[in-house]
Fold these 3 entries.
Entry 1:
Amino acid sequence: MDELKLYTYIAVFGSFALYFAIAWWARAGSTSDFYVAGGGVTPFQNGMAIGADWMSAASFISMAGLIAFLGYGGSVFLMGWTGGYVLLAMLLAPYMRKHGKFTVPEFIADRYYSKTARIVAVVCLIVASLTYIIGQMKGVGVAFSRFLEVDYDLGLYIGMGVVWVYAVLGGMKGITYTQIAQYCVLIFAYTIPAVFISLQLTGNPIPQLGLGSTLADGSGMYLLDKLDLVVTDLGFKEYTTDNMGGTLNMFAYTLSLMIGTAGLPHVIMRFFTVPSVKAARSSAGYALVFIALLYTVAPAVGAMARLNLMNTVEPVAGQNLEYAERPQWFKDWEKTGLLQFEDKNGDGKIQYTANAETNEMTKVDRDIMVLANPAIANLPNWVIALVAAGGIAAALSTAAGLLLAISSSVSHDLMKGVLTPNISEKDELMAGRVVMTISIIVAGYLGLNPPGFAAGTVALAFGLAASSLFPALMMGIFSKKMSGTAAVAGMCAGLGVTMLYVFQHKGFMFIPGTSFLGGMEENWFLGISPNAFGAVGAIVNFTVAFIMLKFTGPAPQEIQDMVDNFRVPHGAGKAHAH
């Protein structure tokens, strides 16, 4: 066994052993433990767990890859996801914690005094969460197949098994303490290679500063100027100014990601695990610090990975790399099919250009950039192994949080809240575990056979949450008079408009050939892409709700009093027992 494989096995299976030990130590004995960890987690611990929950495979693996290839345009993901967290922490979490219920649909049912509202919220939550999990499962499969050199399918089965053990056994209590360990793994795995590479390229050990520094090769040229020069020479758009489809589309995309993220329920649930509203606010502050440690490094990782990739393929300007002399990391990623070369002109050299006819790097999957980065930069084997463990930790931590959100919405909101209100606590806990097991199997199946629309459905997940759940939560907290009928009408209208727009451009249920407007940009509404349309759906939701309010009259007085109560900052009790 070679050294890299040995280090990778130690890093990955050592971290799994740690997660299993924590899950056994913190196994859930009651529904309160299962849903909210008994409400006894400290703000510092919760901040770290929120950080791990927040930073999914999308943040760890995909985001820097997107920034590497989209340049400035990729910053919408950075701004959208971070801004969404701030919105959630400031405008939603403290008030929902004061109200004291376990889940988002339960809050909506209480506030809008309606079982219909609860069922609509459950449907939105399940669709959004399940589509989001597909991406996590793909991340697990990709990381395992490359680093453990097993088949993609086998890698996915291993990942499903690991999540099943600690999520089903421990519930929120097990997940919380496991996520604290996963945060430590993923933040070390992300920052250590970035420090090494920043030192190599610029002589500055702080990646955030290295991004704006001059290169260490004595040329006196700034790193970003060099990158702009390299990519424009090959026909690509300038790295530092390239935007995505115009200013309005960039704005709508960022807004859609922000409010969609704030409406995703798996992070909101984390705020119920702390003992008080004050602790909920503190844990929001800690989480922002922990999230910033990764999010401020991502632009540096993206830019440095792109520069290293370009320098590998074209070591000297105008001289292309001989294919026969390609480095080992190139061969390793070719085996996975995520990196592909086709010698179109038969000269045995690698031409990498923006022109599709002459470009011989026919596939460079964006998701490989962070995982391949340490190997491209010739870093030690233990660093490469650490990155493998980090990528898997990021995917597993978010998948567990999403599975808990789905299981609680079915067992707690649908079964106990609507269908079988007299269910015992023991049976509810059992139902939660059964639903979570089924969800893992469904998510695994979709990960094994990722629909060709995986990217489209993740956009739909954010669009769904942005156009349905976020406006309902905001109006529930900040509009005392908002009635249940008006809110349900708003949710249905926002959801309907978003789904209609996405389907007409990407096909009904993403079936090829059914999109009657196609993906053509000239058919976009005001130039806004389907992936960014959640922001427009949210505006429709608010508008319809406030128009309907004129016809339905305000919410009953006792509901207005309840809203007043959870908006008062003092006197908060514990989460209600069930």
Entry 2:
Amino acid sequence: MSQSQPWWKGGIIYQIYPRSFMDSNGDGIGDLKGATEKLPYVASLGVDAIWLSPFFTSPMKDFGYDVSDYRGVDPLFGTMADFRALVSEAHRLNLKVIIDQVISHTSDAHPWFEESRRSRDNPKADWFVWADPKPDGTPPNNWLSIFGGSAWAWDTRRGQYYLHNFLASQPDLNFHNPEVRQAQLDNMRFWLDLGADGFRLDTVNFYFHNQSLADNPAVPAGENKTFVAQGMNPYTYQRHVNDLSQPENIGFLNDLRALMDEYPETTLVGEIGDDKPLERMAEYTAGNDRLHMAYSFDLLSDRHGPEYVRDVVRRYQEGLGDGWPCWALSNHDVVRVVSRWADGGEDLRLYPRVLMALLLSLRGSVSMYQGEELGLPEASVPYEELQDPYGISFWPEFRGRDGCRTPIVWEPVPKGGFTSGKPWLPVDRDHLEFAVSQQEADPGSTLNAVRKLIHWRQQQPALVRGDMRVLDNTGDALCWIREASEQSLLVALNLTGEELRLALPCTISGLLEGHGFHGYLDGNELVLPPYQAFFAET
């Protein structure tokens, strides 16, 4: 890799959801010590960094995305000494450490909110978004919570409503208040001083609201709804022009980037949930004074046909300008991609591998979710064992996020080798055949195939940092050229269960080996067997 290329640009980030990764003390909940124990496994994949989902002090009503102490480690996950040990071990293994920052809202148990709600004239009275009711007592406007119902909750102490984009127990901070902005910058500096190499910013476009509190307009008939929520959710009926993505956000991103620039080799990756995600990503990653990179929900949706994927990639190529994407197919909030994109009958031994080839061949950085390297499908979690409040609210049409959050299966035993206690979510028995120990011992396993592909990709300059050009008229095959100064590659992918044949779309100078796929040439035809890829130098 070029010495001028920062590590994050084209880097691969492995997301660890600590609750479900590895439990070190038998309480059924994964923790920092467990994650540290398994870091050599993560490093063996060939990735560049880990992203830790929240481990901060929290009542856990939204499993850590409701923070009550931004500088504390929740006892469920361990101690501050455990965090320091994790950072030390990660750095020993040449892994960077990115941690979540959930700064748009707090828990209602955070001391800031407890003080703010006491009266209308205390020192933190304006640290959250408060508003008087309409004359008839109803909420100030029509804004909705992603988790269902109004985005406003009544507080009897102040006789006012407060804003919450998620659970009522997650009040939104008022970023129009400079003291709030500075307090959150100070909290992030705290973790940078402890050795964090960067932050994944949850809901990065949710920080500011329109102070006029004007209603959101309805989505016009026939127009696309937002990807931010599931289609049956009333939240998708509105255009979110007043509750999200306000212009003032840019100024805060400037301040945040200035902080990061004090700590060389650190990075910011933002999660963007917006009606116009590409436009927002271009805006938020433009130049050198905002986010380093961002990701949206375009490839985290249910849509997945070759034409859709080609269209998404092309739009990003044409619309992102000098910005930089971080691509993801799965995370802790969506159905695992192997199940989400399956149309039925997919070969679960081969399908996950070609999906990983797709992810690793796009221009940008990569976020892999724990278990993706195993080819894990979505777990089945019975209603009576659901933990996710989002899923409980919208059951059965939407089953929530628990199916992608079940424990990682390390061993083919009833608790998956994850814990000696009762797992916080049940281990799906169908996952046991995907156990790490079994796959490690099988040279032909998905794990070993993905590990081989990652190590190979990390040695291809064109795939790590090259430009990209999507090729047209390739039918169900996805084809593009990746080009760096020292290498130019043709990438061809077959995400279908049918053999694809197409005229060779460009002149090639040599076939590449070592990636583990079996696409081949038959005269001037490129042949892609089901779920296969082809890589060649051009």
Entry 3:
Amino acid sequence: MPSLELEQLSLPQLVAQMVVVRASGHIFDQQIQYPAWEPPVDILNHWVKELGVGGVIFLGGSAAELVHRCQGLQSQAPVPLLLAADIEEGVGQRFSGGVEFPPPLALAEIAKTQPELAQNYATQMGACTAREALNIGLNWVLAPVVDVNNNPANPVINVRAFGETPAIVSQLASAFIQGARTYPVLTTAKHFPGHGDTATDSHLDLPVLPHDRNRLETLEWPPFRAAIAAGVDTIMSAHLLIPALDAILPATLSYQALTEELRLNLGFQGLIVTDALVMGAIANRYGANQAPVMAVKAGADILLMPVDPPGAIQAVVEAVEAGEISRQRIEASVTRIFAAKARIFSKPSDFGLDSLSQVEDWQLSEDILRASQIVSDQACSALEIGNGINCLIVDDWLHQDYLSRNAPAVKLPVEFGFRELELIDRHIRLEQFNQRAQQPTLVQVFSRGNPFRGLAGLSQQAQAKLQQLIASDNFAGIVIYGSPYVLDSIKPNLPEDIAYVFSYGHSLLAQNLAIETLFRHP
């Protein structure tokens, strides 16, 4: 990284270093999936080259495309860029070609009986994620989630957490950080002051938590303390209101939360980054350009995904010129940003696509999936006459990328006599489930808490289909992918002789392992 002095940068250039913008990982503008958030190439290039933004966060595309994108943007940037992605479950979670791991809660499942193995897996998962991130040009891993998911109805954290207790989250998240930090990438603990006990998705609206300070100190904050001790580089704020800390402003915009608690009380010296400022909890309540000013006043160093990046920069500049924010406050943030960049750019990276998706990394993903599976005592019987139904239940067929005609969940059941396909999502009319099932039916449910889903459990349609099958004599078996809380809700109603398998993953590998386990488990 070239040596830069703060005095060399104008005030707008300093503020621009605090802004990280969103972009598509795809190469061509025609491939952009979220045009409201992802600018076309010419605008993105202008933000990088002319405005001098500090970084870019990517979503979508292949590993090969991202290499091209990262190299092109870095070549234009006056100051090397932070290039980030939400890859909590490995590079393959966002970019095809990389390894995809099951969600972090799978490691908590393993830790129930084999804590040392789970911790070892977490370390390896962190190292693999960091290495593959570097392989495709990224240098900032927006992971791990250190929220304690103690609310099964949490629609946004859910299986993204490393567990349901502060102790296990602290151990596994710290192991992930230590593994990742063996490579020159930044890591991120999120979401402070703690997003684990919400029933509202902050992507859609502002959650309110009534917890007192003692509760925060004993349950929500121990994993953040552990992450700081493990050397985490950045901590991301949460868009939620905790009146015990600030009765008026959400944590992202609160001086009490970010400066008094995180910076002073917890002693965090790294970078404080906001969660995405385009999210509903902020964007729907505060001005597009006022929110960034408020976040800087609160203590944020990096403004992630402001609604209007040029407008956000200008608004913060005007706040400094008006005396609302001191120039020293801006310089303190940019000093921390330059220090972080110096660490990851201290020596050139010699990684590349030739070392992406190593056999041992895929084996690690498989090992975690196998060790975290939950399996009934019964095995599912294959049909002698292939007239069974393979019923696939998802939230929305138009918004999923883990099922196709060649996916194991579609193809493998055919080998066991389930040749007919039934597809159900939340758009199916409930009246269709009034009649009893007439053929042996295998059910596969894909469900997990996800941002923007707004639901942690089963849809009405899924519940209706399961009730129909339970009332019939044709329920052959069930595979549940994703949320263990869905398994918990279904199990009490399952007939005792029904075989089931639960897998934390949705991936093709997870499907293959689950189907084989269901039919071949002794």
